[in-house]
């Protein structure tokens, strides 16, 4: 796989193939974060596109000594927060998650559980949700998350822990644990 | 192990990306404490839910959309740069033209304010100003009094400067100009050609206006030479 630094150099030289390579390499990462933050596919796709356009226009500001992925995710996070702030200013445009939990009995327990976790994540505060997703889903270290969010290590740890507690409380409140136990007994 | 200690330990395990029941002390505590057992199950559910949560996949058209967007942004930026350069060049030309005209006319003048206040002294000169401004694409019917002439000409010049880049580039917003990929010299040439009649008309009109003001000596310099 081509080194990201050489891809970036080619992108800065105006090489379209390098742009495509860079976008293809990080699309799922960026889209994954945007989707978790926004809970809606269309918005997540728009923010993914915007993130790449911004990043490619700002490549000069990226230092080769720094990891590219956290830098890119920081841009994605900022775009998502901006959109969420816009949504708050227009409360009538409240978005529901695309995948509303389906309680049909034939639904597999694992899928149901995933949807419940996804739903619980959307109830969290933005910064907690982002820290949680970056740690548990994007597998970033606490230091990298601190870079992405621009906050100290201790704050990041606190946010991730609060996010976990929030999700766990929501799962308990919705009785998901009991359902999971039943499903396991049936299995 | 106490209940509070168990909570901290659960977080520590998850921080290390390990399973919640990786510590046997947690398991033994939850066998005695119902609330902590619920909590442990909830953390299990969280971890299992995260494992089975599919990573959302985007459609495959992102790269092409990004390329198209970058191209649009690039064109927009080029147009903006050309617009600014055009404005600067126009402003510079007009300033030079106006400066030359005023410098020549002001020689030997005692009190410019008095002259301006006196209005038109020569109707044929007024007609010449109208014609000259019209030749430069600055429509003016000559109905104002002399006191307001400079303001009017100035305003028309500003309007012309605003419209100039579009006239030079021959593009409407969203269109790609023919010279978009050409070097600076190629698109500056028509711009310079477009500016030339405008600046000469404005400076000539200003020169005529200056000479027509009553009580003001004329230095004999032709406006065309400016």
Which chains make the largest contact? A-B, 42 and 30 residues
Q: Give the % helix of chain A.
A: over 70%
Unreliable spans of chain B: 106-120, 168-185, 215-226
- Give the biggest beta sheet of chain B: none
Structure classification of chain B:
mainly alpha
Strand content of chain A: under 5%
Rg from Cα of chain B? 38 Å
User: Mean pLDDT across all residues of chain A, rounded?
Assistant: 82
The radius of gyration over CA of chain A amounts to 18 Å
Explain briefly what this protein structure is.
The complex is a heterodimer of chains A (187) and B (226). Chain A has helices spanning 4-12, 16-38, 41-57, 68-89, 109-122, 126-137, 142-149, 153-173, 176-186.
Core attributes:
heterodimer; A: mainly alpha; 73% helix; elongated; B: mainly alpha
Description:
The complex is a heterodimer of chains A (187) and B (226). By secondary structure, chain A is an all-alpha fold. Chain A is elongated. Chain B is mainly alpha-helical and 226 residues long. In chain B, helix 4 runs antiparallel to helix 7. The longest helix of chain B has 45 residues. The termini of chain B are far apart.
Set down the secondary structure blueprint.
The complex is a heterodimer of chains A (187) and B (226).
Chain A: H1 4-12, H2 16-38, H3 41-57, H4 68-89, H5 109-122, H6 126-137, H7 142-149, H8 153-173, H9 176-186
Helix pairs in contact in A: 1-2, 2-3, 2-4, 3-4, 4-7, 5-8, 6-8, 7-8
Chain B: H1 3-15, H2 24-32, H3 34-52, H4 62-106, H5 112-117, H6 123-135, H7 149-169, H8 184-212
Helix pairs in contact in B: 1-3, 2-3, 4-7, 4-8, 6-8, 7-8
């Amino acid at each position: 796989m081509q080194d990201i630094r050489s891809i970036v150099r080619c992108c800065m030289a105006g090489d379209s193939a390098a742009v495509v390579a860079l976008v293809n390499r990080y699309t799922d990462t960026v889209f994954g974060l945007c989707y978790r933050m926004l809970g809606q596919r269309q918005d997540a796709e728009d923010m993914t596109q915007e993130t790449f356009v911004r990043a490619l226009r700002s490549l000069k500001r990226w230092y080769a000594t720094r990891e590219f992925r956290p830098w890119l995710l920081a841009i994605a996070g900022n775009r998502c927060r901006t959109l969420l702030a816009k949504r708050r200013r227009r409360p009538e445009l409240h978005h529901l998650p695309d995948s509303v939990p389906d309680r049909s009995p034939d639904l597999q327990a694992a899928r149901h559980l995933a949807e419940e976790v996804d739903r619980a994540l959307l109830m969290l505060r933005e910064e907690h949700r982002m820290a949680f997703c970056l740690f548990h889903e994007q597998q970033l270290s606490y230091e990298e998350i601190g870079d992405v969010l621009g906050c100290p290590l201790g704050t990041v740890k606190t946010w991730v822990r609060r996010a976990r507690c929030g999700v766990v409380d929501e799962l308990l409140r919705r009785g998901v644990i009991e359902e999971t136990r039943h499903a396991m007994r049936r299995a | 192990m106490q209940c509070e200690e168990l909570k901290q330990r659960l977080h520590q395990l998850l921080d290390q990306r390990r399973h919640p029941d990786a510590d046997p002390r947690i398991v033994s505590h939850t066998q005695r404490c119902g609330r902590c057992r619920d909590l442990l199950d909830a953390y299990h559910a969280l971890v299992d839910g995260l494992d089975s949560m599919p990573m959302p996949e985007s459609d495959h058209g992102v790269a092409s959309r990004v390329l198209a967007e970058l191209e649009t942004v690039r064109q927009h930026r080029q147009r903006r740069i050309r617009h600014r350069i055009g404005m600067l060049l126009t402003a510079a030309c007009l300033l030079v033209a106006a400066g030359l005209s005023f410098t020549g006319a002001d020689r030997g003048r005692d009190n410019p304010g008095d002259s301006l206040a006196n209005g038109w002294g020569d109707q044929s000169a007024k007609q010449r100003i109208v014609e000259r401004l019209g030749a430069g694409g600055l429509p003016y019917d000559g109905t104002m009094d002399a006191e307001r002439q400079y303001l009017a000409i100035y305003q028309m010049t500003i309007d012309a400067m605003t419209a100039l880049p579009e006239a030079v580039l021959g593009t409407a917003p969203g269109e790609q100009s023919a010279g978009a990929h050409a070097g600076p010299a190629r698109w500056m040439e028509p711009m310079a050609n477009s500016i030339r009649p405008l600046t000469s008309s404005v400076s000539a009109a200003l020169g005529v206006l200056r000479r027509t003001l009553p009580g003001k000596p004329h230095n004999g310099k032709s406006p065309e030479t400016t």
